[in-house]
Amino acid sequence: MTTIERTVGAPMTRVDGLDKVTGAARYAYEFPIGDVGYVWPVQATVARGRVTGVDPAPALARPGVLAVLDSGNAPRLNAEAEVSADLFVLQGPEVAYHGQIVAAVVATSLEAAREGAAAVRVSYEREPHDVVLRADDEAAAIPETLTDGGPGFAERGDTDAAWAAAEVRVDHVYTTPVEHVSPMEPHSTIAQWDEDRLTLHNSDQGPFMSAQLLTGLFGLEDGAVEVVAEYIGGGFGSKGIPRSPAVLAALAARAVGRPVKIALTRQQMFALVPYRSPTIQRVRLGAGRDGRLTVLEHESVQQRARQVPFADQTVSSSRMMYAAPSARTTVKVAPLDVMTPAWFRAPGHTPGMFALESAMDELAVELGMDPIELRIRNEPEVDPGTGKPFSSRSLVECLRQGAARFGWERRDPAPGIRLEGRWLVGTGVAASHHPDYTFPSSALARAEPDGTFLVRIGAADLGTGARTAMTQVAADALGIPLSRLRLEIGRASLGMAPFAGGSLGTASWGWAVDKACRALLKELDAFGGVIPDEGLEVRADTTEDVVNRPEMSRHTFGAQFAEVRVDRDTGEIRVDRMLGMFAAGRIINPQTARSQFLGAMTMGLSMALLEIGEVDPVFGDFANHDFAGYHIAAHADVPALEVAMLEERDNSPNPIGGKGIGELGIVGAAAAIANAFHHATGQRVRDLPIRLERSREALRAARTLEHGPAGGAPQQVG
Amino acid sequence: MKEFAYARAGDAREAAELIAQRPDATYLGGGTNLVDLMKLGVTDPGLLVDVSRLPYDRIEHRDDGSVLIGATVRNGELAGDPGIRTRFPMLSQALLSGASGQLRTVATVGGNLLQRTRCVYFQDVTKPCNKREPGTGCPAVEGAHRDLAVLGTSDHCVASHPSDMAVALVALDAVVHLRSVDGATRTVPVAELYLLPGDTPQRETVLERGDLITAVELPAPPAGAAMRYRKVRDRWSYAFALVSVATSVSVADDGSLADVRIALGGVAPRPWRASVAEERLRGRRPDEETLREAARAELAAARPLPDNAFKVDLAVDLIVAGIRDLSTRKDRA
Predict the structure, then answer these.
(1) CB-CB under 8 Å, B142 with A691
(2) Angle at Cα B197 formed by Cα B192 and Cα B202, nearest 5°?
């Protein structure tokens, strides 16, 4: 008899790792398919207006070109479908943003499609556009709800009175720019029709939900759409729903009566894939001399496409992080002539916590209080926004244990005084937070007559390790070794399941897998443990379990630490080291979890110092639209990163015990770096990214102060 | 598909014959920039004459201290050459600060010199650009110009030259060896290879059609020189310079600067020899005030735009820091 070891909690190597590194894993674009057409979009060169004419003749005259689609001849979509307005591809002549798909060429080769697209002549009636977000945009309005379902405006207590009475106040504006999602695998699709059935091989975070969306958009019968997404090279939110290129592929396949494929170029990614909205945030914190917050005010102005009511939950962390008795939180969204922004890793919380956690650091400096102590003093007993108990909340533990690991106790709080050679050195801390979502899911578990088991779950593995985690959960629930288990994921037809977004995958899918496996074992017991000849299968659905959970405030927390150095001559910034201390329930797989945290912290570093989509006001697009111009952290930028995970028991009834971790690691990282920059230089930068010109401006201001009456020059410490 | 012909030249004569065949023929070195530009539609040659395998692949260290670097020597190989690393460290540093390991393995010395600006408008064929289509205008002045030039620009073009290697070569008084289509050879200092944009930004170098770079010659380094290439950029690898400075100093016994050479990158349409600053510093002691005054004099001619104004002060600070660090170094040769 063999002993079955539990795999949940073990640092298991990815089950699909070998397939990926050897190229055996098939991504959406790679499925072999005969007689395929290639689609190349023709993109608007104006940011607002209407297409007055599309001349397909020069393209049609080229060899290999099968069709030129435009809003005049493209198949009709179901105009009643309740989907984002930007998905009604080629349904009308209006141009809502620069780069929008206004026509497309289908050809028998990729090259012919591309050349054909270049030959299509499009004429426009151009209207003046506005693509620049301004804090005082008169059209900016408070949305009824944010993407997390919370209200656009919320207030508790008497904020104005509390502000007027506050002993200590900080009041500043913080900004974050457009950030592009930039997954390694571009958005790509193969679309194939069989009469009124559509199969999409799509780089997709949620095959089941995408199939439902497309069923509605194309006005098809339930179950008529299959979406296959077996392997995905990153999504970070941008593949949460099908985007316009996927819809275009389905339209084109319909039009030419054969399967077609599309993969965006990197340049097209910048124009056709949603991005993180820029934000202009004002945070006002009032506190007593004892450091207890009396008032917290957070307003975020952000942008949306005119037709698409998207509003990131930028102030939502501020609603529950700290025990301020009065708080006012507002999101305002300005409609502009831009592509819709959308989810990007920890939507809202990432820019929102940059602002809040920078402001907390400013308050700590103002109070002369250690920033960790300040946060601990404002730890709430229950969710201050809703009054609900937390299912678990380990922020204080993360701060304390993180501080011990990082060596925080040795820190001299005085800013701008440590000099090592030509480098000013400083350290910073920030809290990290993300909601812990669980969505209903279904799963199927099947015992085969040969003694093996099959588990089916409509999950998607973006590269995070979901396939591995679900394998672990299923094997443990069934009590079998991995060799007897087969797991299928990545198809809509595997059944109802939420997408891989909002860090909710593992907890949501895992619950359903666990439930199905345990139910199967029970059924097997009824057969005396003997598997019937035709096998035995059980489908489980967690909808009721999820809905009937007790009312609780469910979140994950962490603490981010950073040490940076700033060159006094040039303003160059180096991040020496970062530590992320996270608590997210039970960790299913410490190895893949660590990778997720490392990746997210790297994104936070990149956000702090490098990333900015440069809006071109004249043309209405992004001036930098490739990886030479849009800088993402390279290896040389990423220092010693340390990830530590705190074991945490969560009081929610999910048998998995795991909370989502995908997004937690990015939140707060940029604030920790910005706070460390302040500690190093004595100057605050409130606008991201902290590039050279901003760093140099800060150094200049620091030098001016140094030479003033109260100035003290930095001392060599190294 | 856009078709183009490809021919590999075995020697310089053959290369000249091939390039003369068609007016839309162009030389191909490592292709790390040209092929990108073809993909972007910026350039559309009908014939690529591959000169990357011409017999110019040697680095010859001569007895008089000079070095002849063949035009097809790869950037990575040049950076790693022991003689270059010890006697011309700034050249090795400049090369290693550019591109990535993969690109340096492919890119040639000749190609590096002739790479094009990375101005986003030049590279986007849906936008106007005086360099790409003369007379269409320069959107960078009103638009994205943070990475572009502050010196030597004109109303027609504010593009910056992207090469790191060329900046070091200019500081080292390097000379380019050229061979014209009729077989005649001549030399041009690297500093005089590039034209300022004026009202003809489409003309970037003094090369005549069909001219082939066969070698770059480095004269012997100045006696007792300490030298360094320092590049400031947005991230710590794989990014073009915001500002870079190649500095070489020889300090006399009395502490004055016997020889000083400064070249700047990232600030001008060509690698920028800081002759004004050099002039003011030669024979002087490099105290902070003298250095700063000289550097400011060099940048006095700068015509920055709103988003690249920071480059002016940064260039000043880099010149000052460069000479200060080198002239106080203990390990001077």
Answers:
(1) no
(2) 100
Q: Which residue shows structure tokens 């339209």?
A: A251
Sheet of strand A418-420, all strands in order from the earlier edge strand to the far edge: A640-646, A573-583, A555-567, A423-435, A418-420, A715-716
Q: What is the pLDDT of residue B332?
A: 47
Q: What is the pLDDT of residue A712?
A: 61
Residue A417 within any structural domain of the chain: yes
Is residue B234 less than 8 Å (CB to CB) from chain A? yes
Find residues 138-197 of chain B whose CB sits inside 8 Å of chain A.
139, 142-144, 146
Contact with chain A for residue B127, Cβ under 8 A: yes
pLDDT, averaged across chain A: 96
- Exactly one of A663, A693, A697, A706 is catalytic; which is it? A663
Whether the Cβ atoms of residue A198 and residue A191 lie closer than 8 Å to each other: yes
Are A83 and A230 found together in one domain? Answer: yes
ipTM: 0.96
In angstroms, the separation between the Cα of residue A568 and the nearest Cα of chain B is 10
Query: Domain B226-327 is in which class?
Result: alpha beta
Phi then psi for A359, rounded to 5 degrees? Answer: -65, -40
**Shortest Cα distance, chain A CAs vs residue B17, angstroms:** 31
* CA distance to A442, A458, A533, A608, per residue, from A546 (Å): 11, 17, 34, 37
Final residue in a domain of this structure, among A249, A272, A295: A272
Residue A663 is among the residues annotated as catalytic for this protein: yes
Q: How far apart are CA A556 and CA A552, in angstroms?
A: 13
Whether residue A575 is found in the same domain as residue A477: no
Q: How far is CA A385 from CA A323, A325, B36, B240, in A?
A: 9, 9, 53, 47
Domain carrying residue A519: 17-26+440-489+505-540
Total domains present in chain A: 3
Residue type, B228: R
- Of all residues in chain A, what percent carry a pLDDT higher than 90? 94
- Distance CA(A179)–CA(A280), nearest Å, equals 14
Q: Is A607 within a domain?
A: yes
Residue A530 neighbours by CB under 8 Å, 6+ apart: none
| pLDDT over threshold 50, residue A2 | no
Q: Tens digit of pLDDT for each residue in A625-649?
A: 999 999 999 999 999 999 999 989 8
For residues A307 and A334, state if they share a domain.
yes
3-state SS of A12-27 is CCCCCHHHHHHCCCCC
Sort A583 into a burial class: Cβ within 10 Å, 0-12 / 13-18 / 19+: buried
pLDDT tops 90 at residue A713: no
- Low-confidence stretches of chain B (pLDDT beneath 50): 330-333
Residues A315 and A268 in one domain: no
What is the structure's pLDDT at A715?
Answer: 77
pLDDT digits (tens, 9 = 90+) for B61-112: 999 999 999 999 999 999 999 999 999 999 999 999 999 999 999 999 999 9
Dihedral over alpha carbons A303, A305, A307, A312 (to 10 degrees): -50
- The CATH number of residue A124's host domain is 3.90.1170.50
Residue B144: list chain A partners with CB under 8 A. Answer: 614, 616, 623-624
CB pairs under 8 A between A and B: 78
Q: Are A689 and A580 in contact (CB under 8 A)?
A: no
A89-138 tens-digit pLDDT: 999 999 999 999 999 999 999 999 999 999 999 999 999 999 999 999 99
Q: Residue A507 pLDDT > 60, yes or no?
A: yes
A319 with A303, same domain: the answer is yes
Pair (A349, A286) in one structural domain? yes
Strands A49-55 and A94-95: antiparallel
How far does the CA of residue B320 sit from the closest CA of chain A (Å)? 9
Q: What is the pLDDT of residues A403-461, one digit of tens each?
A: 999 999 999 999 999 999 999 999 999 999 999 999 999 999 999 999 999 999 999 99
Which residue type sits at A49? G
